[in-house]
């Protein structure tokens, strides 16, 4: 629906809850029952966020994500995006898989240092979060309607021009970290956000205080220096953008820094001290699927399009398509070839060069052109890098 109208097409009257505080309490209870970790309620007046948004767009930091510029200031004006909106229910859902070990951050760092292994961002190893959150937010709306009668609402989850971190921060779900992601003292940043725009004047929840202090761990850890200043990210340099949103050739200057990351990057979150408090999901949806639990680059490179579609069904990875997937894996294989000199990598790359698209062929050629390091300076007998990578060189902040 494009606005907060009822089924008849006429504007919905603004419902007046007989007891807004009681309704807010019920909404919190229902949200937990539906698998959400926390909810808040935000006002819709985000005028103070507009200058920062305009400056970010003017600097071109959104890269090829043209939709961000097209919608312009609507992102900071919920009542213009969805007429009739007076409040936004913000929701947090933790996504670490249920079997995540206590030392998961150390394990992720170790994996990024293994050239032959593939790194997929933790959030993308399970079910597509868009589907999970949207469905459960809609069920939350249905619970509210059952309590107060029909009301205007619209569900969002990373699917429209919404300033979700700004709204979540203003409603007390956390504060914006220097890496621009939302942080919470009891949950770190390993969670998804969703929103329910409503025409019900629920009481707003107060914002949280910031607790980054003088820490610069995320800025220091970013492999491509995409965090150009505290609280400002140039998406054009970000590995998550380059491997997911960007659909053309990956700029050569960033390919080495990508390492073995084939979908997204968690480095800025992994080194954040607050993520020692990251929470495991209560839902099976975000458990890692077997093909993505501990993937090897050569195994992923062998996926033809049919295999890719089958193994990413219901996964957020599927939306980038097989061509972008191969491009990403080719870059990672080029880095592995340089680090290991393993002839199996060169053979696998060369085997797919004939008939490759222009995009893929260029990345294969780059990968094969990487000069292999001498064995003693690249990989130990156990397959571990003996020379520090950009990830190894980062000292985790004191916890």
Give descriptors for this structure:
two-stranded parallel sheet; cobalamin binding; disordered C terminus; 37% helix; four-stranded antiparallel sheet; cobalamin; alpha+beta
Polypeptide structure, described:
The protein has 399 residues and is α+β, with helices and mostly antiparallel strands. It has a domain at 217-273 and 288-377. 37% of the residues lie in helices and 10% in strands. It has 17 helices and ten strands. A four-stranded antiparallel β-sheet has the order 1-2-7-4, with helices on both faces. A two-stranded parallel ribbon has the order 3-10. Helix 15 (321-340) runs parallel beside helix 17 (358-368).
Give the helices and strands, then pairings.
Layout: H1 20-33, E1 38-42, H2 50-58, H3 66-71, H4 78-81, E2 87-94, H5 104-112, E3 119-120, H6 129-148, E4 153-156, H7 164-170, E5 175-176, E6 182-183, E7 191-198, H8 217-221, E8 227-229, E9 232-233, H9 239-245, H10 252-258, E10 261-263, H11 267-270, H12 290-293, H13 297-301, H14 305-311, H15 321-340, H16 343-351, H17 358-368
Parallel strand pairs: 3-10
Antiparallel strand pairs: 1-2, 2-7, 4-7, 5-6, 8-9
Fraction of residues in β-strands: 5-15%
Strands in their spatial order, largest beta sheet: 1-2-7-4
Shape assignment: elongated
Indicate the mean pLDDT. Answer: 90
Classification by helices and strands:
alpha+beta
How many strands, which pairing sense, and closed or not: the largest β-sheet?
4 strands, antiparallel
> From N to C, what is the helix and strand string?
HEHHHEHEHEHEEEHEEHHEHHHHHHH
Gyration radius from CA atoms, angstroms: 22 Å
**Residues in helix, %:** 25-40%
* SS summary, helix count: 17
DSSP strand count:
10
> Distance between termini?
46 Å
């Amino acid at each position: 629906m494009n606005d907060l109208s009822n089924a008849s097409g006429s504007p919905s009257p603004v419902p007046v809850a007989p007891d807004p505080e009681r309704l807010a309490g019920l909404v919190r209870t229902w949200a937990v029952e539906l698998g959400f970790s926390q909810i808040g309620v935000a006002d819709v007046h985000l005028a103070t966020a507009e200058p920062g948004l305009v400056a970010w767009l003017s600097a071109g930091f959104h890269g090829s994500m043209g939709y961000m510029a097209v919608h312009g200031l609507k992102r900071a004006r919920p009542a213009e995006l969805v007429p009739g909106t007076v409040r936004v229910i913000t929701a947090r859902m933790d996504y670490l898989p249920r079997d995540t070990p206590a030392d998961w951050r150390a394990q992720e760092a170790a994996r990024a240092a293994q050239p032959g292994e593939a790194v997929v961002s933790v959030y993308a190893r399970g079910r597509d979060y868009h589907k999970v959150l949207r469905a459960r937010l809609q069920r939350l709306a249905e619970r509210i309607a059952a309590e107060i009668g029909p009301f205007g609402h619209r569900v969002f989850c990373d699917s429209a021009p919404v300033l979700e971190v700004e709204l979540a921060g203003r409603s007390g779900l956390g504060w914006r970290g220097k890496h621009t992601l939302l942080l919470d003292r009891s949950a770190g940043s390993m969670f998804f956000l969703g929103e329910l725009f409503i025409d019900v004047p629920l009481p707003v929840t107060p914002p949280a205080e910031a607790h980054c202090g003088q820490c610069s761990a995320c800025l220091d850890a970013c492999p491509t220096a995409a965090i150009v200043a505290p609280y400002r990210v140039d998406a054009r340099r970000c590995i998550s953008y380059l491997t997911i949103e960007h659909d053309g050739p990956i700029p050569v200057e960033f390919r080495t820094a990508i390492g073995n990351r084939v979908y997204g990057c968690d480095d800025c979150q992994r080194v954040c001290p607050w993520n020692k408090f990251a929470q495991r999901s209560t839902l099976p949806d975000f458990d890692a699927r077997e093909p993505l639990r501990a993937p090897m680059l050569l195994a992923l490179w062998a996926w033809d399009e049919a295999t890719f579609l089958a193994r990413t069904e219901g996964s957020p990875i599927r939306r980038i398509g097989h061509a972008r997937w191969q491009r990403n894996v080719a870059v990672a294989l080029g880095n592995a070839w340089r680090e290991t000199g393993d002839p199996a990598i060169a053979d696998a790359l060369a085997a797919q060069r004939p008939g490759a698209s222009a995009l893929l062929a260029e990345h294969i050629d780059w990968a094969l052109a990487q000069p292999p390091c001498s064995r003693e300076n690249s990989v130990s007998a156990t397959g571990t890098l003996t020379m520090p990578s950009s990830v190894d060189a980062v000292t985790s902040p004191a916890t």
